[in-house]
Write a structure and sequence with these properties.
heterodimer, A: mainly alpha, MetI-like fold, 0% strand, disordered N terminus, disordered C terminus, B: alpha/beta, 4-stranded antiparallel beta sheet, 8 helices
């Protein structure tokens, strides 16, 4: 075998990357359009079908309203008693926001400490797992005993319940930076601080956002659970009271409003992610970490 | 002049061992060699023989277990910053465009952005990336990404260029072209280059001198000067001198047992 043949043979398996020219952008744009359609169009159709099915069951099955109110009636209640729901939503939403922010503010520094210190990582990791395994719903009554029926136990419950996914995904993110990239900036004279902000932090952001997205959906659960166990106001309180009166319509409307709130919060996080991370692909990583 | 006789880069009984948990592995043992200023040195050797370790030690990113690396007579004890690195993967930051990736070099060094931008544009033009300043890495081919990495490594006009199998992941044609481009850039600047590769052809085509490393623990099994005229053209590869030298180096690997006609 001649030297050139030999080299050609060696190089052949590495031909994964295209030799010339950038990949054509057109195909990419079409894929994006197709995926947008799949993102919104298909789920919307499915929702319409399911609601129609629900309406059909109520209409043709002559189901009592206290068992299953019709979707139209629920919608009417949601907006007919809008001021009531709005008023009760405020404490719930405030608890979600404050608790959620608290979770982020605590989770990020802990994740950073775990990345930079082996000792911290070894010490904290088992505790994190234990904290996650403890059924937090069961802890809620304790919070009520300790902190009363106001906002504080709700805030803490929200923080506790969304802390874990945020800290774990942040940890994964901070460790995702390629060692070569870190070497590269160190050889440019970067200190730890610069290496963190220029490489580790931006590298971690998609993963942090994945954790935050899981967290925000859990935050709503946390607030409602705390309100179930004991609170003076909030959508969860309204729901529990209505259940006591067998007022299924209000229960359904409360659930619907909680769903709307959770959905809007999720969208807000997604928008924030798109603003902060332009040109980056979202979604794939979220699905991957959603399995956590 | 005393300076002219002092080698620019010296590896002095350089030894590096790693504790793998199950025992200490010596990657490089008591290795000594030198580079003159402006020399293009290629290192060829089997995988895992500690070639990368040498490069990282020269960059000051790792310290030898014993021995020393000296640049211009001074021991390298912390990251040596008058140096550019190109890795096998381009290591571009995916959230930065081509230009932003190149300018990272200036941002970290806190040098003038206007100057750096002008220079980046010029260098990108020289490697045929005009008009790609605003593209993200995933919109570039492997060869283009590696060119961006090369421009980033040259932006601050470093004295030393360290290249760790930089073209190893590229296909054969792209590789030929980028070798020609690298030679041109080097001839214009005459930086001191340490170039690690698996490809004997590549080493002979690019370097003034080729060091052949043995398997671990690495030692210098042979050293060759490359007598080919510069600029070297692709046709040089079919020349007799080229073929002979490549054959000789391959012969060294056969003697070392790295290459064998028999099935392993």
């Amino acid at each position: 075998m001649s030297p050139t043949q030999q080299q050609a043979r060696q190089a052949a398996p590495a031909t994964a990357a295209p030799a010339g020219g950038a990949p054509a952008p057109r195909r990419r744009r079409r894929n994006l359009l197709a995926s947008r359609y799949a993102d919104w169009g298909l789920p919307a159709v499915l929702v319409v079908v399911l609601v129609a099915l629900w309406q059909a069951v109520v209409s043709f099955g002559s189901v009592e309203e206290y068992v299953l109110p019709a979707p139209g009636a629920v919608l009417g209640k949601m907006f007919g008693d809008f001021s009531l729901f709005a008023e009760q939503s405020v404490p719930t939403i405030v608890a979600i926001f404050v608790g959620f922010a608290l979770a982020i503010v605590i989770a990020l520094p802990i994740a950073v400490a775990m990345v930079y210190s082996e000792i911290v990582r070894r010490a904290v990791y088992p505790l994190l797992i234990i904290a996650q395994v403890v059924p937090k719903v069961a802890v809620a009554p304790l919070f009520i005993i300790w902190f009363g029926f106001g906002q504080l136990p709700k805030v803490l419950m929200v923080a506790l319940i969304c802390f874990f996914p945020i800290v774990i995904d942040s940890l994964v993110g901070f460790r995702a930076a390629r060692p070569e990239s870190l070497m590269l900036v160190r050889s440019m004279g970067a200190g730890r601080w610069q290496a963190f902000w220029k490489v580790r932090w931006p590298w971690a952001l998609p993963s942090i956002f994945a954790g935050i997205k899981v967290g925000i959906t859990l935050a709503v659960v946390g607030a409602v659970v705390a309100e179930f166990v004991g609170a003076d106001k909030g959508l969860g309180v309204l729901l529990m009271t209505a259940r006591g009166d067998m007022d299924s319509l209000t229960v359904f409307a409360s659930i619907a409003w909680l769903t709307v709130i959770g959905f809007i919060l999720f969208i807000l996080v997604e928008v924030l992610e798109r603003v902060l991370l332009p040109g980056r692909k979202s979604g794939r990583r979220f699905e991957a970490s959603g399995a956590l | 002049m005393a300076q002219a006789t002092t080698p620019f880069v010296e590896f002095d009984r350089f030894t590096k061992s790693f504790d793998t948990g199950t025992g200490v592995v010596t990657a490089v043992n008591e290795m000594s060699f030198e580079l003159e200023r402006g020399e293009f040195l290629a290192i060829v050797g089997p995988s895992g023989c500690g070639k990368s370790t040498l490069l990282m030690a020269l960059a000051g990113l790792t310290q030898p277990t014993s021995g020393q690396v000296r640049v211009a007579g001074e021991a390298v004890l912390k990251p040596y910053t008058d140096l550019g690195i190109v890795f096998q993967n381009a290591e571009l930051l995916p959230w930065r465009t081509t230009l932003q990736n190149v300018l990272l070099q200036a941002e970290i060094r806190r040098t003038s952005k206007a100057e750096a931008t002008a220079r980046a544009g010029e260098l990108l033009g020289q490697v045929g990336l005009d008009g790609f300043e605003g593209r993200y890495p995933d919109e570039l081919s492997g060869g283009m990404q590696q060119r961006v990495a090369l421009v980033r490594a040259l932006l601050h006009d470093p004295e030393i260029l360290v290249m760790d199998e930089p073209f190893g992941a590229l296909d054969a044609l792209t590789r030929d072209q980028i070798q020609i481009d690298l030679q041109r850039l080097w001839m214009e600047r005459r930086k001191t280059v340490v170039f690690v590769t698996h490809s004997i052809d590549e080493a002979v085509f690019l370097a003034d001198r080729v060091l052949v490393f043995s398997p671990r623990p690495a030692r210098i099994a042979a050293e060759f000067r490359v007598p080919l005229e510069r600029p070297r053209h692709l046709s040089a590869r079919t020349s007799r001198e080229f073929g002979d030298l490549v054959g000789e180096i391959r012969g060294v690997f056969e003697t070392l047992g790295v290459l064998s006609e028999e099935a392993k």
